[in-house]
């Protein structure tokens, strides 16, 4: 990694959050010039999430075979914003924002690599490379992005955060209100990242309603990811998802607000109790050390 390609720490880049990643405000589906312009001038928004797929720009013939990375969510295949223009606009505006690029296929990612290479020396802000690389709950049928191909090629950008998750079938659109991540799904993710010898920052996007039902395995995921330099969780949710807010709040507090991004609708955010949250696991370890120290002192 060259000096110009040093990983940008999110907590350092946004000092006003005081290390609390749950304070990061996200803007979704920034897939048009208008949404990008609005997001870049928003005082509250810190991270821009946008979808990358292969398609054509508005005004291009429907018969065009020249597919390029555009900002759009499938099934859309047209946009007024290309990935190239998206990145260069963010760079030129030079505002305090980070970006999360959600790649919808391995072909879209492959076509994006030369564009990412071209601008990487100018991305002085947090960049997340995201893809759903494994099938997840509840019997998700969406085809994941090819796991090993995505991870191995994303490793060419060690200064960027690798954001890798699971496809899901949950929520009002799927008429599914119960489900959880399994131990096998968690282990499959860990195995892939270990096999590829990933060391760069990682964040695991997990769906809020499912994560709240899977606290044990989600904690296991975090505990068994010490092979990477910096590991976080990104809790996300769709409108109308069934979520046990109390259990989710406890999970976030247990892992620690310095390790969890919360990207959920405002009505769910309002139900979470995260103020003053610190890692219960860290607190427990601190207490144990204190008790042990006291015991040794009394013995000695």
Automatic annotation (TrEMBL):
Record key words, sorted: Membrane, Transmembrane, Transmembrane helix
Cellular component GO terms, alphabetical: extracellular space
Residue intervals passing through the bilayer: 274-296
Keyword NADP set for record: no
UniProt key word tRNA-binding: no
Domain Menorin-like: 20-268
A Pfam family: Menorin_N
UniProt similarity note: Belongs to the menorin family.
PANTHER family referenced in this protein's UniProt entry, alphabetically: CONSERVED PLASMA MEMBRANE PROTEIN, MENORIN (DENDRITIC BRANCHING PROTEIN)
UniProt protein name: Protein FAM151B isoform X2
Gene: LOC117212358
């Amino acid at each position: 990694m060259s000096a110009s390609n040093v990983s940008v720490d999110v907590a350092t880049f946004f000092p006003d959050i005081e290390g609390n990643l749950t304070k990061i405000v996200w803007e979704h589906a920034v897939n048009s010039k208008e949404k990008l312009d609005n997001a870049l001038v928003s005082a509250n928004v810190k991270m821009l999430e946008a979808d990358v797929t292969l398609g054509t720009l508005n005004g291009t013939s429907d018969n065009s075979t020249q597919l390029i990375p555009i900002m759009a969510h499938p099934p859309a295949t047209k946009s007024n914003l290309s990935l190239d223009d998206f990145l260069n606009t963010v760079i030129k505006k030079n505002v305090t924002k980070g970006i999360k690029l959600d790649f919808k296929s391995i072909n879209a990612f492959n076509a994006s690599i030369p564009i990412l290479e071209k601008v990487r020396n100018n991305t002085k802000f947090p960049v997340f490379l995201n893809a759903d690389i494994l099938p997840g709950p509840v019997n998700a049928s969406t085809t994941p992005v090819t796991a090993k191909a995505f991870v191995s090629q994303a490793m060419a950008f060690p200064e960027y955060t690798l954001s890798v998750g699971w496809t899901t079938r949950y929520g009002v659109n799927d008429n599914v209100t119960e489900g959880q991540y399994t131990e096998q799904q968690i282990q499959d993710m860990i195995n892939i990242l270990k096999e590829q010898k990933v060391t760069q920052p990682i964040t695991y996007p997990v769906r809020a309603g499912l994560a709240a039902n899977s606290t044990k395995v989600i904690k296991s995921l975090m505990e068994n990811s010490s092979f990477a330099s910096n590991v976080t969780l990104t809790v996300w949710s769709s409108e109308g998802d069934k979520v046990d807010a109390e259990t989710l709040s406890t999970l976030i507090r247990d892992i620690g607000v310095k390790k969890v991004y919360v990207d959920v609708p405002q009505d769910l955010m309002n139900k979470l109790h995260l103020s003053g949250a610190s890692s219960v696991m860290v607190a427990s370890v601190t207490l144990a050390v204190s008790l042990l120290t006291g015991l040794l002192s009394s013995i000695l």
